[in-house]
Amino acid sequence: MPSPTAPPIAAAAIRPDADRPRRTRRGSTLALLLLGVAVVLLVVVALSIAIGSRGIPLGTVFDAFRHFDPENTDHVIVRSVRMPRTIVGLLVGIALGLAGALMQGVTRNPLADPGILGVNGGAALFVVIGIYFFGLTSLKSYVWLAFLGAAVAAVAVYLLGSLGREGATPVKLALAGAALTAMFGSLTTAMLIGDVQTFDQFRFWQVGSLSNRDYAIAAQVAPFILVGIPLALITGRVLNALSLGDDVARSLGQRVGMARAFTALTVVLLCGAATAAAGPIGFIGLTIPHIARLITGPDYRWILPYSMLLGPILLLGADVVGRVIAQPTELQVGITTAVIGAPFFIALVRRRKLAEL
Q: Which of 103, 106, 181, 303 could disulfide-link to 263, CB 3.0 to 4.6 Å?
């Protein structure tokens, strides 16, 4: 005679198999949607190469790759200006999309972005130090200073947030990031208001831009981003566990402190390289994870690859819009992403009231 507890046990034993077809169908659907997003990204990349402040026929764009003529000005523009700009935008968009998802996951804060861990503030401070004390003026020198500043800021935030018996909690990390961001901002402002030449040099980098980015800058930051991408994609299960709370994560066998340190290191690689290449660009890291979450739900194993593809779609799309609406000049992409991203993020907040992490 079956015991009274038999039905629940049997149901629990049967439920995984019963749910498997539904999970398989959902996984197949998300994989197909991810493939569709990849196709959209390819279209946006093509638009970024084809469209600019100077009108170039589409056939000439194709000829620039198939039969390059160094005497043809349009060919030179496509190969020497638009291609490296698109490559840098692709790398920066991927890095910011992934970094935003990692930050929101590890801090369990839906408003987390590169600013909350002090990355932008640290990068800006080190660039200003380079201009003010050493007279540096080239974008190539800013790359390494910004990357170093971002790394130092992230490490400082993590160490400060780790003080105390309970270690690095999401609230302490957010508070440490806000405090150090304020300090970095004060030091940066103190140097800028004391030297007009430093301010003139710095303001072009601070806006956030993809213009004048060449293959050398792409080559400088690409290794860090290419290393950071696989590191980010393998953290999906860890972020899923952390999203349940530290105690539950520990009961599932996760080493919470080690997981947070690993994720923070990945954020430094991605976000530091992106900020170094294009300056502080807002709303990509903040908005993209929420868009991905609308499609996938709370599973970070899917949020991360979607964020990786959606980030460059938004960034390159905003860059194309900035080139078109202000002809014959252009708007910097940092301004365009703010104009596009702010109302879009408000709409997300009003519709979803921000997804709980």
A: 106
